[in-house]
Design goal:
Distance between the termini: 27 Å
Strand order of the largest sheet: 1-2-3-4-5-7-8-11
Radius of gyration: 16 Å
Number of helices: 4
Order of helices and strands: HHEEEEEEEEHEEHE
Oligomer: single chain
Helix content: 10-25%
Largest sheet: 8 strands, antiparallel, barrel
Number of domains: 1
Structural class: alpha+beta
Number of strands: 11
């Protein structure tokens, strides 16, 4: 399970049901802060000698950056755009995936992580899919979502993505308490030497 969260496997980005995906970004232009603290290569802090898993963030423009994720075999399996943003006192990272396992994505989906970054340390937590799925079952009107159908036309309640506007997503994040169980396990990274 730990490896799953470290690399956000491509399978989870291709198939909803593992991470909360959105058609729209989780930020507005006014929320963006400099992504410069993210620049560089990050490796797992707890066991950096196991595999070669890493994330590389490179400058793209004044407020955004490109990212590449590599798996334990050293293969690039995620490529996309990242934006660091702030809502209240919390910082978040919006990842828009362009390629997964070398294949272009048909839908540029956004996912959000709650982050804390310094010159030498990075921590992040994914928005927990199971928590969000339970919330949206209980309160279906909280955020709009689109369900997908399988090859037989059957809707499965684990296959959905958010279609709420960026404004609604921002408000949703602002309303979450700092210690909300909405955020998954904290992952720690350090700068690669």
């Amino acid at each position: 399970m730990k490896r799953f969260w470290l690399m956000l496997p491509a399978a989870c980005l291709l198939l909803t049901g593992c991470v909360v995906l959105s058609v729209f970004p989780f930020y507005g232009e006014s929320d963006l802060v400099s992504s410069e603290p993210m620049f560089g290569k990050w490796i797992p802090a707890e066991d950096p000698n196991v595999g070669r898993e890493s994330y590389l963030f490179r400058k793209w423009d004044a407020k955004g950056c490109w990212f590449e994720g590599t798996d334990s075999d050293g293969h690039t399996n995620l490529v996309g755009e990242a934006h660091l943003f702030q809502l209240g006192s919390n910082h978040y990272l919006d990842l828009a995936v362009d390629q997964s396992d070398g294949a272009p994505q048909l839908l540029r989906a956004h996912l959000v992580l709650k982050v804390s970054v310094s010159s030498s340390a990075l921590e992040w937590q994914l928005l927990d899919f199971d928590w969000m799925n339970a919330l949206l079952r209980k309160e279906p009107g909280k955020l709009s979502r689109q369900f997908q159908r399988d090859s037989n036309g059957v809707v499965r309640d684990q296959d959905w993505y958010l279609t709420a506007s960026s404004r609604e997503l921002r408000q949703f994040l602002k309303d979450l308490p700092a210690d909300s169980p909405a955020w998954g396990e904290k992952q720690r990274w350090k700068r690669a030497p």
